């Protein structure tokens, strides 16, 4: 185990993730964790994260000096390295000029951290303070124009520090530096796998839950599906999954979700609520009203089902790490009300919430899903908005429009998959516009709806580019949609990026 000791920096989980990427198991613990508890985990190394404070302030986070005297390698990053210097008798100061962003850095490649790497390169700096006097036994192992101690080392005591952030991709070779620490200094084996993670998590969940009852709202998305698979392995039929099928899923999707869980020993409840939702939404065309009504109705349907089960002990949520960061992001303007982000159902009687994926990034969640035996069509599912196709039908929703859109969307997805683009385009779908235009088919006039195709590439879904799909793929999709889907006589491709557009149309 490697312990990542958290001092409140913004990249803490990213450090943990980098360690896991090196196939080394790691746990993030708060800096206040008593030393005994840390030692009880038999760590092969400890990494101190960055943090927003200055070490010389009275209330800034500290650790006991003894942590450096255990013979366990310690790597300090940013605040972590300053803290190490401060506690061990060095000096930290606040210079006139702060360093922020990409910074040219010179490395001493005889330091274990930089062994085998170039002698200079770009590192990512984000600090005000720096170390101006090293503790005894330390020497400088990297510097920049403005920072004399960009890295320091005391190889005898296995203590290392970096002022910059090796965990972010802006630092060239940063990951190799972490790798050097883990393998050269800590002697990590690098044999940890997602399978181990699954096994440990299942074990921990089992111990925690005992014979308690667990409830999970399954949306069919990657996160809730992986959470369900994890819980099913941990507690079997103590778990009830309620899958509210609002009818706005893509073609066949409701059945696919059900099929994926059919052989698991859990209580799987699928509520077919399409009629109920269609009734509720009849005549509604304002996007925000649609979203709000769907969100509310969703809760009501879920509540009705949950009532039948009665009191449960635990409610499971498929929150993943990026959700945790985003929900802490403050008072950003509401562009769209996302109905399944962080919404806490206080209408269900439960003791405690369990979020088993809270520390994982999306690709790790997918890897875990594979490990737990979920089918690819669930694990690699593209993001799908909670309100589903309802917000891809512009204007009033009818059952007819819903079926039309499902068909068109299905064809587009088939063509994208056929062209081998389904993993490289991050999200792609069809939108049923509320616009009709004149066409000619056979010898007759048509007056039908227009389908818009949307496909984007993005890493974080906060900004996105429209995907440069080859014309022949667009052509094939367009031909098939107009020929095979009744009520459609025109297809457009959306070539707007986000911003200024959003990914979804509503
Ligand atoms: P926008 O349209 O805001 O979408 O650019 C960004 C990403 O979020 C998805 N999205 C949602 N996801 N609940 C969700 O879980 C929602 O209500 C919702 N609305 C949009 C959208 O599909 C895209 O991936």
Automatic annotation (TrEMBL):
GO CC, alphabetical: cytosol
EC number: 6.3.5.2
Pathway(s): Purine metabolism; GMP biosynthesis; GMP from XMP (L-Gln route): step 1/1
Coiled coil: none
InterPro entries found in the cross-reference section: Class_I_gatase-like, GATASE, GMP_synth_C, GMP_synth_GATase, GMP_synthase, GMPS_ATP_PPase_dom, Rossmann-like_a/b/a_fold
Keywords carried by this UniProt record: ATP-binding, Glutamine amidotransferase, GMP biosynthesis, Ligase, Nucleotide-binding, Purine biosynthesis
Residue sites binding ATP per the record: 219-225
CDD domains per the UniProt record, alphabetical: GATase1_GMP_Synthase (cd01742), GMP_synthase_C (cd01997)
GMPS ATP-PPase domain span: 192-381
UniProt catalytic activity: XMP + L-glutamine + ATP + H2O = GMP + L-glutamate + AMP + diphosphate + 2 H(+)
Molecular function, one GO term: GMP synthase activity
Enzyme class (EC, first level): ligase
Annotated signal peptide: none
UniProt entry tagged with the keyword Ligase: yes
Catalytic residues (UniProt): 78 (nucleophile), 165, 167
Role played: Catalyzes the synthesis of GMP from XMP.
Subunit structure: Homodimer.
NCBIfam families according to UniProt: guaA_Cterm, guaA_Nterm, PRK00074.1
HAMAP family, sorted: GMP_synthase
Name listed for the protein in its UniProt record: GMP synthase [glutamine-hydrolyzing]
Gene name for this UniProt entry: guaA
């Amino acid at each position: 185990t490697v312990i990542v000791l958290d001092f409140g920096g913004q990249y803490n989980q990213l450090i943990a993730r980098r360690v896991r990427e090196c196939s080394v198991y790691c746990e993030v613990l708060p800096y206040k964790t008593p030393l005994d508890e840390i030692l009880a985990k038999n760590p092969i190394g400890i990494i101190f994260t960055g943090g927003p404070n200055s070490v010389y302030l009275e209330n800034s986070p500290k650790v006991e000096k003894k942590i450096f005297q255990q013979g366990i390698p310690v790597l300090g990053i940013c605040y972590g390295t300053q803290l190490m210097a401060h506690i061990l008798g060095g000096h930290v100061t606040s210079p006139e000029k702060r360093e922020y962003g990409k910074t040219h850095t010179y490395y001493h490649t005889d330091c274990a951290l930089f062994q085998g790497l170039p002698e200079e390169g770009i590192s990512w700096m984000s600090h005000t303070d720096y170390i101006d006097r090293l503790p005894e036994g330390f020497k400088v192992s990297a510097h920049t124009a403005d920072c004399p101690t960009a890295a320091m080392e005391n190889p005898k005591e296995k203590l290392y520090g970096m002022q910059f952030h090796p965990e972010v991709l802006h630092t060239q070779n940063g990951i190799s530096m972490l790798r050097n620490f883990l393998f050269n200094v800590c002697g990590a084996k690098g044999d940890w796998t997602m399978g181990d993670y699954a096994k440990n998590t299942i074990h921990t969940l089992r111990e925690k839950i005992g014979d308690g009852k667990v409830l999970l709202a399954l949306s069919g998305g990657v996160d809730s599906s992986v959470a369900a698979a994890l819980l099913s392995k941990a507690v079997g039929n103590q778990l009830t999954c309620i899958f509210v099928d609002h009818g706005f899923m893509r073609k066949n999707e409701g059945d696919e979700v059900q099929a994926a869980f059919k052989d698991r020993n859990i209580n799987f409840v699928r509520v077919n609520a399409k009629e109920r939702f269609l009734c509720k939404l009849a005549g509604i065309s304002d996007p925000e009203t649609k979203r709000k009504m769907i969100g509310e109705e969703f809760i009501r349907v879920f509540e009705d089902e949950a009532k039948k089960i009665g009191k449960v002990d635990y409610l499971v949520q498929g929150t993943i790490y990026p959700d945790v960061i985003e929900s802490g992001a403050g008072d950003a303007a509401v562009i769209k009300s996302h109905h399944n982000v962080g919404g806490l159902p206080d209408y269900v009687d439960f003791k405690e919430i369990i979020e088993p994926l809270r520390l994982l990034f999306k690709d790790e969640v997918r890897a875990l899903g594979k490990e737990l035996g979920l089918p690819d069509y669930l694990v690699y599912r593209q993001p799908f908005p909670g309100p589903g196709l309802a917000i891809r039908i512009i204007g009033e929703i009818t059952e007819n429009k819903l079926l039309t859109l499902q068909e068109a969307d299905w064809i587009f997805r088939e063509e994208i998959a056929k062209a081998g683009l389904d993993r490289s385009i991050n999200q792609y779908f069809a939108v049923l516009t509320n616009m009709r235009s004149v066409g000619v088919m056979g010898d007759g006039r048509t007056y039908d709806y227009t389908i818009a195709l949307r496909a984007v590439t993005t890493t974080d879904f906060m900004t996105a580019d429209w995907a440069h799909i080859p014309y022949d793929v667009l052509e094939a999709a367009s031909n098939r949609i107009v020929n095979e889907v009744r009520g459609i006589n025109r297809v457009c491709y959306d070539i707007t990026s986000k911003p200024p557009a959003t990914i979804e149309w509503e």
